[in-house]
Amino acid sequence: MLSNIRIVLIGTTHPGNIGAVARAMKNMCLKQLVLVSPRIFPSAEATARASGADDLLANALVCGTLERAIEGCRLVVGASARLRTVEWPRLEPRACAEKLVAECRGGADVALLFGRESSGLSNAELDRCHYLVHIPANPEFSSLNLSQAVQVLGYELHIAELALQQASVGEDKVTPGGLVTADIMESFFRHLQQTMEDIGFSNPRQSDKLQRRLRRLFLRARPDRDEINILRGILSAAQGRKSMRRN
User: Fold this and answer.
1) Model confidence over 6-46: pLDDT tens digits?
2) Interior angle at CA 120, CA 114 and CA 42, nearest 5
3) Which of 6, 19, 89, 191 fits as disulfide partner to 46, beta carbons 3.0 to 4.6 Å?
């Protein structure tokens, strides 16, 4: 199941950190490394810091956008050391690992996002996440190195998979059915925003805040394919009625 978990690094500044993350991942049986717009990659420094995890670097997927990095993922979690002004559903590392590993049963892909070394994930990037995971640390010195954060969460993922394997012995595997992927959700959010503009509901001064709250609502609800189709049908009907009134 760990092979279905993507470790996504966004805007990594120092190539050595990419290599250190690859080493931490291999320690914990994680295989999918995805890099979004790294400043320097490939790099001899990354290879040196990988200390034998060169295969993860060689097979790393390098993307220009976060949308490409999480395409096809059914669950997306963002790692953050900072409290945010907008409330995201928050998980502790152990609960986060259990949720990610359980989601992978049946072959679904999931993603765990890590932001820039200096500033972490932006609010726009967190908008793509179902949950936020926070590693409890010394409140007076809470900043972890990127590879340290991956190591902590990677350990929890490894332990969660071992526990699930033991619990699954002799049991039928139950997998979540019909849940939509991140790219399908993003298409729905674009449709929702366009419909709100078309019917005159969206206030430009409050649009970003309102859209963020609606994202939290629907990501928390985790609709399946049929539910998304119903919602998009409602949006299309609202757009059509508005168009008829104009005519």
Assistant:
1) 999 999 999 999 999 999 999 999 999 999 999 999 999 99
2) 55
3) 19
